[in-house]
């Protein structure tokens, strides 16, 4: 990383201090009509750090963040890390029991909360081991009036020294396959990811602006967007909820140049835009970024043509802070599902998801892919394993889980399935644990979903496995139809046969009003499985369901 104050940037909380020196009174964030300049962000982060020290926080202590996308979040986040503590962003969309587990597992004795979540925060504190709640506008037993207490703190702070390997942030996994796991991200992990993005695809400068509606408790918004923008001097317009009309209005009114979202957000925005095109001027946009899951190719093409911008996709995980791959904003453009080449700070290998035998390594892709590889066969498809300075230090208090996902060479096994093409670009296939095995055939739900999206009557599609009397399991689909569409189950099932292998077509199609989604709008396949069991009455699919 670049030098700051005469020394290489080695402390993550120095990012806003460097930015304040460079950009001063330039607007860093807006929220609900209020602006926060770079200088104000740095000063407020110092006040937060001073308050935490006054409350007894020491280096290495965990401090929770229970705050939506507002101007309160950035100074609280950097103030925690500047004090030498570990920031624990809390997922606001977790159910109370799971959230309580996360708080207690993290050992966060102090939590900074938002006034718009005052009741939820106090209930959480009452149900967990939280010792002190810092909550604006409230003074009570165990509750400190955060806004008032900050006013008494100085705007300067003598931060403690921390090593690059010390932990700075501890976000948690979603917990869809078990208890959420605390991901230990060091100063080096966070800084390396920012460096990787600024060098490898996220073209951002001080003239850029971003509508940031992806939740800041999620690593993509937290580090790939917020930290990169702060480092480069851009302006972020924070929104706490993904409302299509509000997002489009913000793009128009603020002359926004970039946008980051997930497929469900873009689908919502497109449905609003196509019916009210004259209301929104999106000519300021340079590119938009789609993350978390592949966007159907027809939706991507339609949005790119209508808005006149490229849509950039990439891949990463909480465990990679989240750097991994990204499409370049200029150069070779490919279809939806392409997540670009590997960022230059990372090494990857494609391995067999069962035996972990290496199929393809970074050395075979750089500087040009090995011409002897069979890019049409199974040789270049498998699980992504990644290594680099951005890859996490392990799971908090879960050594057995940590050991299970690393090999002796330091590669982290992601359980994400991808293929590599002849240009060295990766294409996301699916999660290994989402794979459906039907009579020995591997079926990736995302491929079946892509086929369903080709039908003009399908607005959204989600696919999961369901028990089958002969094949063990087989795909079923849940579909949200376009308004006014008249489509039958049989029609959709027959339609998919033109786009996927016979063994991969959905044996049943269920029509629903909405799909179950998590905090980042990813489809929750475990809930689809529960819905399938309910729709099927607990009975397995039968051979007669074949077409």
UniProtKB/TrEMBL annotation:
Domain AMP-binding enzyme C-terminal: 447-522
Domain of life: Archaea
UniProt keyword terms in alphabetical order: Ligase
Keyword Ligase part of the UniProt annotation: yes
Gene Ontology molecular function: any one: acid-thiol ligase activity
InterPro entries to which the protein is assigned, alphabetical: AMP-bd_C, AMP-bd_C_sf, AMP-dep_synth/lig_dom, ANL_N_sf, ATP-dep_AMP-bd_enzyme
A family per Pfam: AMP-binding_C
Record domain AMP-dependent synthetase/ligase: where: 19-396
Membrane-crossing segments per the record: none
Family to which this protein belongs: Belongs to the ATP-dependent AMP-binding enzyme family.
Protein name (database record): Long-chain fatty acid--CoA ligase
Organism annotation: Haloglomus irregulare
Higher taxonomy: Archaea, Methanobacteriati, Methanobacteriota, Stenosarchaea group, Halobacteria
